[in-house]
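Dear colleagues,

For the upcoming journal club I promised to circulate an example of a predicted protein-ligand complex. I picked one with adenosine-5'-triphosphate because it came up in last month's discussion. The inputs are reproduced below in full, followed by the predicted structure.
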Amino acid sequence: MGLLAAHQLVIDVPNRPAQPLDLTITPGQVWGVLGPNGAGKTTLLHTLAGLRAPRSGSVTLDDTPLASLGRRQVAQRLGLVFQERMESFPATVLETALIGRHPFLSAWQQEGRADYTRAQHALECLDIAHLRDRLMSTLSGGERQRVALATLLTQDPAIWLADEPTNHLDLHHQSAVMALMAEQAGKGKSVVMCLHDLNLAARWCDHVLLLYPNGEARVGERDALLITEILEPLFQQRLAMGDIDGNRVFMPRG
Ligand SMILES: Nc1ncnc2c1ncn2[C@@H]1O[C@H](COP(=O)(O)OP(=O)(O)OP(=O)(O)O)[C@@H](O)[C@H]1O
């Protein structure tokens, strides 16, 4: 189904007081996690993915505690794009995208025709089909980012967690990737993204989680929370808010 929930969750950020968080992300929603550097956005995303233990509380996936599921079971339903990636062995773009199918293959099972078709389709969606035989080590930052997203699309999980998915991307590809996220939500996926760009969040997210440096969080619908009275203290930055084609836009002031 793709229901991800946090119950009295305290993420494990060193030297921070406990701030329990309750959160339910339902299929079809696009969430933006926003907050200043060091607020704990990546830690939260990794905790929601089960890659990092919480200090207390729990995360459930379709009502089952994440901690009681095996990594493979989790990976069949939940995928994550990391902010930083290290390629540990030489691989082409296509081979990397095919890693998205590994949770669905048994040990030593080769990828089949359907897996290749999915991966090829994902490369086309991310506008990198022409790079399919290139080694990852030869790619630009934006090209690597799009391969990471193509790998997630090849995996095709019910829950998409992405840590700054527009990192390194030019304007056109930022917009295309956000549209892809919204399209996936339209197909019933749950999408959670850490974002630094308020304008992308305002344009593409329907819910936001605002994370404060002391661990407090505000959770709710985009239009209620993306207002200057709330965002200025969050970012310690004066802001001007405008409206373009019915979308809120924010500009730093002074
Ligand atoms: N292993 C660790 N040891 C000590 N402190 C850590 C460790 N991992 C993370 N932290 C600290 O936890 C805090 C939250 O880090 P996190 O990467 O989650 O923040 P973030 O909101 O994603 O930041 P950014 O916007 O800069 O990416 C930071 O102050 C970071 O220095």
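Two points we might discuss: The chain has nine helices and twelve strands. The pocket of adenosine-5'-triphosphate is lined by residues 13-14, 35, 37-43 (CB under 6 Å).

See you all on Thursday,
B. R.
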